[in-house]
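TL;DR need structure tokens for one chain.
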Amino acid sequence: MLTLVGVVLVIIAIVCACMLVFSSKPKLEKLLASSRVSIGDTLKAYQETKASLGDMGKEGVVSEDMTIMGKPRCESPLTSPLGQKECLYYSYRVTEKHKERETYYETDSNGNRRERTRMVTKTSTLDEGSNSTRFFVDDGTGEMLVDPQGGKFEGLVKTVDRTDSQFSNASGPSVSFGGLSFNLGSGSSRPESLHYEEEIIGLDRRVTVVGTLCDKMGDLLIEQYKDSHVLVSTKSQDEMIAETKSSIQTQKICAIACGIIGIVLMIIGLAADI
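>> reply
TL;DR here they are.
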């Protein structure tokens, strides 16, 4: 038993170490390396650079990491599927709880093994999805286009968090919520309950965008460049840096503590089995 617990703790330590090395540290390095800029000054410098290069001032003049903050504006905003809110990004999930017959085995005091069945409640994902769209950021000095395709989104605002459980006597074969409809099945296959969750980045919140400034066919925008993803958040750059540093510290402590305790328990467990 001690050996098994030790193995689990070592696995947790490895997971924490991987999160630290491949997620948290690269994110912190990107946040620290991306200086906050004025959009107006950036556009002016871009035009001056392009003019000085003449015919060479085409695509690819600019390619550098930076951070901008301001109010978002969408020419074609998205509508979130559940909450029906205008936004630049949404993520939703619908889960169902249903009864299911499960087979298990019992062994009595005489060592006889018998097959039993019981009804258990299980949870499964009925539907989920996310989407984003291009948007502009206005910091008061100018506007910058952002293409968040393939990016990461933080500081989401929850617009829907609701459970419905009136399906056992429902007369219809389906149920609708927001702009979506779900087939409930019939008889015993009908779910006990549905849980709806949705988070968005709306157009009424200031956003921070960290990404690479690129020149594409004369259009200046922030987008994914090579392996550098766009980060969009409703938090400030300082808040994101502070939270990432805190996560790194927690992951370090977890990796070291779980690793040491896990190895010790494995040694004790193996020694006891000898």
